[in-house]
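Worked Example 4.2. Consider the chain below.
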Amino acid sequence: MADVIASHGVQPHQFADDTQFRLAMAADNTVGGLSILAACTADVRLWYMQNGLQINPDKSEALIIGTTAQLRALTSAVSSVAVAGVELPVAEEMKVLGVVLDRRLTSEKHVTIVARSCHYHAQAIQCLLLFSNS
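Applying the procedure from the previous section yields the following structure tokens:
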């Protein structure tokens, strides 16, 4: 499957049963980039079908990353991305191997989630300590 992806000039990242596609696009040629991505994912879908596998569109996501100015220009033009014949809405953020990525690659959302989780676990430990001392 990696050969099918590479034949389109798209970079894959695979982990277990998760495959991600990365494609650098010029801000003034997003139509061309998105058509390459659509053709690539259609060929991957065909490869899956030929090998008795299936892509689950419900577990598929699309994220466009760029500068604030690039994203502002694209937001009005690109609201969805064709992936393996299915139109996926462009997400504001995406979780990749436990790390939350946003459209500008800031760590704000990820830090917030980690801090919230740490706070929850610290409170749980505090409750356990109170109960064990009584």
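The chain has two domains: 2-92, 104-134. The mean pLDDT is 88. Compare this with Example 4.1 before moving on.
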